[in-house]
Amino acid sequence: MDTGAYLARIGLAEPPKTLAELQVAHLLAVPFENLDILAGVPISMEPDAIWDKVVRRRRGGFCYELNGLFARLLEALGYTVTVLSAQVMHRDGRESNEYEHLTLRVDLDEPWLVDVGYGDAFRDPMPLRPDSDFVDALGRTYRLSVDGEVWELGGEERTQYRFTLTPRAFAEFEPMCRWQQTESPWFTGHRMCTIATPDGRRTLLDDRLIEHSGGERTERPVGEAEVPELLSSLFGIEPAP
Fold this sequence. Notes:
The protein is of the alpha+beta class. The protein has helices at residues 3-9, 19-29, 35-39, 47-56, 63-76, 174-182, 185-189, 227-235; strands spanning 32-33, 80-88, 101-107, 111-114, 126-127, 132-135, 141-147, 150-154, 159-163, 192-197, 200-205, 208-213, 216-221. It has one domain: Arylamine N-acetyltransferase fold (2-Layer Sandwich), CATH 3.30.2140. Strands 5-4-3-2-9-8-7-6 form an eight-stranded antiparallel sheet, covered by helices on one side. Strands 1-10-11-12-13 form a five-stranded antiparallel sheet. Strand 8 (150-154) and strand 9 (159-163) form a beta hairpin. The chain is globular, with a radius of gyration of 17 Å. It starts with a helix and ends in a 6-residue tail after the last helix.
């Protein structure tokens, strides 16, 4: 792990003092995107392939790539990291399969939930405290509740995902990673690129550009000819796939 190159990718000259600084820097620099899936480019879970895509070619990715690579950075910096499997709760109420989302537990003075691969998730590491509320840097309230071994992450609008603290191996996610690329209605049916901004989020969804800034939401249509320039100027993806 070339930690210097990775830190430079997320805009840091040296390791920061806190886990929160690392997570925020990653969210502000690396987009969550499915552009390879739409282009028919297979996504590899090999660590070197993910490194090449995200660090060297300055692309984004989805949870297996982003949280998987971030876990390697954290371990290289001396953090104790556990890979966890989560089931995403979709807006239509459907609960996803096991291994549909990869998230992270990081143990410091207490265990923390860390996620740079969900899209519009909590901005800061969240303490893993049963039945507790958490307010992130943008003032958004989340709740962690526990039923037996199952933890549930609730956002302001809906439940985001459920997970257990059972440690998982990275390779266990490979079948679901393949499924996401070939059968997932969301990832195979929609173009999506989204990145955190200092006061909100910027998203290219199909033919719309959506901006959340300071609690305000704006949206405008996007012509196909605009897409390469938008990916470059707003998301740092260059050249666009």
